[in-house]
Amino acid sequence: MTKLSDVNPRAAAGMMEGQAPIALVGLLAIGVIVAVNYFARPPLDTTARAPGAAACKECGTVMAVRLSAHSVPVTFVEVRMADGSVRTLRAPARQFSVGDAVEVRDDALTARDPS
To answer: pLDDT tens digits, residue range 62-81?
Structure first.
């Protein structure tokens, strides 16, 4: 095993050159992951609310539906509330899809007629 003080500085620089492409590929992969996640969420459109949504503080629109990777599958639903906040709730099954109008009652989701 060589000591750090025994290594020629030029040789140490040569060892790092082989790792530069790997680091660049890693940074590129991180950039792709960030871009995919950024464009996967629907944009916040505050003008496209259902009629009467302003009067309903517990109403919102489903933004995302995700299935957990646990041994007992649980569905998580992200809801953009009428006031602009985002809530994540558990749902028993995949009964909601993105864009559905819902109402939150005691941490449970119920479908709502958007009109």
So the answer is: 898 888 877 777 888 898 98
Separation CA 70–CA 49 (nearest Å): 34
Average pLDDT of the chain is 76
CATH class of the domain whose range is 59-111: mainly beta
Name the residue with higher pLDDT: 84 or 73.
Answer: 84
Q: Where are the domains of the chain?
A: 4-40, 59-111
List of residues 6+ apart from 62 with CB closer than 8 A: 77, 78, 79, 96, 97, 98, 99, 100, 102
Instruction: Give the span between the Cα atoms of 91 and 109, in whole angstroms.
Output: 7
Predicted TM-score of the model (pTM)? 0.50
Query: Which has the closest alpha carbon to 50: 102, 109, 104, 95?
Result: 102
Structure tokens at 37: 């996640």
